[in-house]
Amino acid sequence: MDTPLILSGIIFRNTFPIGMNKTQTFKECRQPIEAARFFRIIEYIESYDITSQKDQSFYVYGHTFTSRSCLKKLHHTVQIKQFKKQYGLKGFIIPVPSPNSFILKLSSSKVLRDTFNLLDKYIFFNVALFKSSYEKSFLKEFNIGDVWASSIYIKQDPTYFIYGADFDHSESDTGIMEFFSYGKDAPHGLTAFL
């Protein structure tokens, strides 16, 4: 029987689609943090030259309450792959604001802070770098609506790197929960600060 993973009250199964290998994860962590740490790490990622990584895709994805139009200022470096309204059961029973899911492909790491600032302060924000050969599966799973499942495909790549934070997390005293995960062959320039 599969061992369930529990993250923020949501249960995920440790199952992979038929034919997929187990994860190539070297290190993974979830912990409460101060906002200063998040911005320091984003600054560090911005200083990393992602163009030096051949055949790599660089994405930012998550949830925000901001509208798609807020990203117009970044149209030269940000390609909007997906931006759609998320509806949960609560949204159908009780009218509550629902966040937008977003997935953005970045051509440069230099716009991470600007992208974050435009997307809102109540945000679930992930940065991912992985081999382009996993991009199609990643986008397909995200299109279905499963942000967590999309990272299962990324984790098949031994060079993957994911860093993110939830800025409205009830399990953290600061309200911010950090998540990071990277593969056994992830670029040392991105993992040295974790």
Summarize this entry quickly.
The chain is of the alpha+beta class. It contains six helices and nine strands.
Anisotropy-based shape: globular
* Total beta strand runs: 9
Separation, N- and C-terminal Cα atoms: 32 Å
Number of domains: 1
The SSE order reads EEEHEEHEHEHHEEH
Helix content: 10-25%
Percentage of residues in DSSP E strands: 25-35%
Q: How would you sum up this structure, described in words?
A:
- It contains six helices and nine strands, in the order E-E-E-H-E-E-H-E-H-E-H-H-E-E-H.
- Strand 1 and strand 2 (10-13) form a beta hairpin.
- The radius of gyration is 16 Å and the shape is globular.
- 25% of the residues lie in helices and 31% in strands.
- It has one domain (21-191).
- By secondary structure, it is α+β, with helices and mostly antiparallel strands.
- The strands form two sheets. Strands 3-9-8-7-4-6-5 form a seven-stranded antiparallel β-sheet, sandwiched between helices. Strands 1-2 form a two-stranded antiparallel sheet.
- It has helices at residues 35-47, 89-93, 112-119, 135-144, 147-154, 188-191, and strands at residues 4-7, 10-13, 25-32, 56-64, 78-85, 100-106, 124-131, 161-166, 177-183.
- Mean pLDDT is 80; it is low at 1-19.
Topology, element by element:
Layout: E1 4-7, E2 10-13, E3 25-32, H1 35-47, E4 56-64, E5 78-85, H2 89-93, E6 100-106, H3 112-119, E7 124-131, H4 135-144, H5 147-154, E8 161-166, E9 177-183, H6 188-191
Antiparallel strand pairs: 1-2, 3-9, 4-6, 4-7, 5-6, 7-8, 8-9
